[in-house]
Amino acid sequence: MTRLIALILLGSTVLLTACNTVAGAGQDISKGGHAITDSAEKHSD
């Protein structure tokens, strides 16, 4: 029973960490896209 609880807690921790990692990567990619868009708009005038 103790092993089952430990596995559930470990699995939950891994899933939550992975979710935060993916969200952070998405934000970084979005910021990069905004920087490219801003640069293109500055140079197109």
Automatic annotation (TrEMBL):
Top-level taxonomic group: Bacteria
A biological-process GO annotation: response to toxic substance
Cellular component, GO, one term: membrane
Annotated stretches, region: Disordered: 26-45
Signal peptide start-end: 1-23
Record's keyword annotation contains Signal: yes
Keyword line: Cell membrane, Lipoprotein, Membrane, Palmitate, Signal
Residues annotated as transmembrane: none
Family of the protein in this entry: Belongs to the EcnA/EcnB lipoprotein family.
Name of the protein in question: Entericidin
Record organism: Trinickia soli
Taxonomic path: Bacteria, Pseudomonadati, Pseudomonadota, Betaproteobacteria, Burkholderiales
